[in-house]
Amino acid sequence: MEAYLDNLATTPLDPRVLAVMLPLLSGRPGNPHARIHSWGCQAGDAVDAARAEVAAATGVRPEEIVFTPSATAANNLAIVGIAESRAKKGNHLLISAIEHPSVLEPASVLAERGFDVEWLPVGADGVVDLETVRARLRPDTILVSVMAVNNEVGTIQPVAGIRSLLVRGGPVLHVDASQAPGKMPLRPLALAADLLTLSGHKAYGPKGAAALVVRDRRSIRPRPLLYGGGQEGGLWPGTVNVPAVVGLAEALRLCEAELDADVARISSLSQALLDAIRDAFPGSVRNGDPTRSVPHCLSVTIDGVAGETLVALLAREGVGAALGSACATEAAKPSHVLAAMGIDASRARRTLRFGLGRFTTAEEIAFTADVLRVFAARLART
């Protein structure tokens, strides 16, 4: 048996999503930007319908949806594009310290270019404090970027509260909501944010499709990072991947429609897994405030065993888990998220992340529990 528990890295493609993509993958060709003939019109109509569906899922207007090939591209467009377009208004950026590398790294590049980038700390609970945000806002602050759901510990950030701190005409609020679909409602996030990042493959959709919601209520327009073709309102040129964005749209629709049922079922499975870990390794600690976290993400510091050892053992037995972000290239380097929460390097190296999702089964959790118990018993005999 196998148990895939790395859904924070990527989710399986929902068969219902694949079903809406297949006709476009195997049917008539057509460039959606070449509407001079029926082939192009058919492809263009499919993109228009997908844009409308993503807009419906987020509660915004279709023209506020910009398709990109990845959430990394969308985050770069938001961070670098807004900084460069608003440089005359100020150069101060507030970025939470637990963001995904696709936010942290472009912000660091901006710092090298002369922007004043300030990292917002989090508490031991893994959550940004609103009073800290209030204290660090300045007249020259042009951008605040805080993710909706952290990808390593699952903590939900106070997006609406941060929005309430930003004065009209002041900083732009960017929210990386890549991990939010299927875990929390999208509309309140889109209502609060000026820019919102969404990802297909984190939401049971295809890789190669993402979106940046760019609200036009304040005439917000990032400066493009790429040029040529003028597609997506000139913000992300290049031929749109028609099957992928259609799949993204269907994936987000399903996430919204099945949110409550999925969360309830996954909550039960998550608690069962946590109980099994604590039973096998007494003294293990869950990271992040569980009352302010999604049940899909279980970050646990295991007592008495190195994380690298345990994740390798699990993989050998057919259980997929992770040490931290799937996008971290330095596996031996402790997680920046855990470090920001005050967790020392020794504890961080004993921490595993389990990601549960729509297709996680009770049988997979029971199988994982058995693997953990056998390994714990083996350790006790040595």
Provide an overview of this structure:
The protein has 382 residues and is α/β, with parallel strands linked by helices. The chain folds into 2 domains: 3-11 and 259-381, Alpha-Beta Complex (Aspartate Aminotransferase, domain 1); 15-257, Aspartate Aminotransferase, domain 2. Helices cover 41% and strands 13% of the residues. It has helices at 15-26, 38-58, 71-85, 101-112, 130-136, 159-165, 187-192, 242-257, 259-280, 307-317, 336-340, 345-348, 362-381; strands at residues 3-4, 65-68, 92-96, 116-120, 141-145, 172-176, 195-199, 210-214, 285-286, 297-301, 319-320, 351-355. The chain has a 7-stranded mixed sheet with strand order 2-8-7-6-5-3-4, sandwiched between helices. Helix 2 (38-58) runs parallel beside helix 8 (242-257), helix 3 packs parallel to helix 4 and helix 9 packs parallel to helix 13 (362-381).
